Amino acid sequence: MTRSSQKIQVSREGIARDATVSWRLDHAYSWVVEMHSPGFGTAQARADDAFEALCLVREELEPFGWRIGVAGAQANVWPSGMARDQGGGLRAYRLTPERVEDLVDTFEPVDPATVTTVALQRAEADRLYEAVRDAR
Fold this sequence. Notes:
By secondary structure, this protein is of the alpha+beta class. It is 27% helix and 37% strand. The chain is globular.
C-alpha cells in the first residue's frame, strides 16, 4: 500500500489555512483521499480513483465554504477516462476551448482562490470538452 501526502492550503471566506492532503491505494484497490486542517478536522473519502475520491471530499467540505487548493479542483482541469483507469486519477488534463493541454498532478498545490466547486468544475469540463470536439 503506497501512501503519499502533500502540504496545501485551503480557504474559507477568503482566509487561507494550512492543510495536508494524503492519498493511497488500499488493499481493496480503492483510492482513499484524506484531508486534514485545523479549520475543519479530517475529511476522508474512498472511490475507484483518486480524482473521484478528491471530489467526494470536496463535496463534503464545500457546503461549509471550504475550497481546496489543489490543481485537481481548478475549473479547467479534468481527467480523461484513461487517466482515471490507468493512472488512478493522479493526473488530469488542463483544458482550453481549443484543445486538451498537458497533464497536471491532481494534488499539485495551487492558490485556493483559483479553485471552484465540484459542480461548477464538472460543468466547465463538459463545456470545454465539447468546445474541443467542435473545434476539430
